[in-house]
Amino acid sequence: MRIQFVGGVDTVTGTQHIVECGGVRVLRDCGLYQGHRKEAREINSRLPFDPSRLDSVVLSHAHIDHCGNLPSLARAGFRGPIHATTATAALCGVMLRDSAHIQEQDAAYLNQKTSRKDEEPIVPLYTLRDAEAAIALFRGYRYGEPVDLGAGLQATFRDAGHILGAALTVFTERKDGAEKRAGFAVDLGRDDLPLIRDPEPMEGLDALVLESTYGDRLHGEAGAAEDQLHAVVERTLRRGGKVMIPSFALERTQEVIFHLASLVQAGRLSNIRVYVDSPMATAISGLFEKYAEYLDDEYRNLNHRFGSVMYPEWVRYIASVEESKAVTACPDSCIIIAASGMCEHGRILHHLKHGIENPKNAVVMVGYQASYTLGRRLLNGEKKVRIFGDWFEPKAEVASLDAFSAHADRNELVEYVRQTRPRRIFLVHGEPDQREALAAALREMTKARVELPKPGDTAEI
Predict the structure, then answer these.
(1) Residue 448 and residue 207 in contact, taking contact as beta carbons nearer than 8 Å
(2) If you average pLDDT over every residue of the chain, what do you get?
(3) pLDDT the model gives residue 115
(4) Distance between CA atoms of 245 and 257, rounded to whole angstroms?
(5) Quick one: 44 and 161 in the same domain?
(6) What is the mean pLDDT of residues 347-373?
(7) Do 207 and 284 reside in the same domain of the chain?
(8) pTM value surpassing 0.90
């Protein structure tokens, strides 16, 4: 068995690895590289492998940096199966269609500009038709169900504890009565997250491919997220303001709703009104209800007491632009959860435009804010920010809740290695400083060989 480290090796986006055994080639994840438009387009438009030589894809989860370039794979002629958990397959139906819509919109916008310069028209990276072709290739499995990949190679999904349906993967090669086992933990979740069960250990590994996103960083305790959210919501509503929560549509929105439901059930919040202003989040919340068997006992118990965690009477899912505008214009106190999570696009920008200068309001960050984003500028306390071309002076409270993260931090990654005890460790999915810091920490506590592959490197297991 050989592993080739293709994408998302020394960065945190665009994850792609190839596992080869007995002539069978399997792509593990086909992520979209996300960054500045020109750079991202150059990287994503050239698949760094021959699609015709792939036999299948094994997909970890539905985040775009792991699944988002599957339509390009289909566009290039790939027609093999895409193996994933049943929940991931369903979520990818939403995520890939939305991604295709964005690709088409971006191309149309750029063509409006280039048409005036007599330049070549921009072709979308992929289209809705390509996304539908990829979606048709999905095959769904449960955790623990073996997937036969051919040539004595088998994959088994384990719970990653990251998002709904996210899977760690154990690749097992059986040959001449012997076994080799390579495990992939990219992305790895955290213990004690709401909704999601804890990550499962992978045992007896000859090799572990491990993420290093937070290789030198610590999060707040996962259990503190609810108290952090309660504190900022209570003080904002008490002063008659709106709580504006920029949130990713997948997982983080549902996590916030779960915490609010838990607070209401415990009597810590009352008379609240919550608006979920994201069509994608609306669709995904429905899938959380449908695939509740993937979720933990805490969710099921609350669901039993509440009737529905995702659809309580005080949560309203906004569909039309007109409804969204009405929520923006309404002066009453409420909680608004809207995309995008980094305040770069989406309906949250309209709410911020009309609410950022009101000192009664609060902007609550529940996710990572990249350095170039509006969310980061708000966190940095900049005196003026630009929204839709106009300048605004932020007067609303800006709060960052550090207990919200679906990625394991440095200590949790080290502990996972302690549990799994692999013979070799390959660190990927991390910026160089984070990979190197985690490598140093692991070398102090394990006898395993810790390696930092470069893009294109191949390792024999």
Answers:
(1) no
(2) 94
(3) 62
(4) 11
(5) yes
(6) 93
(7) no
(8) yes
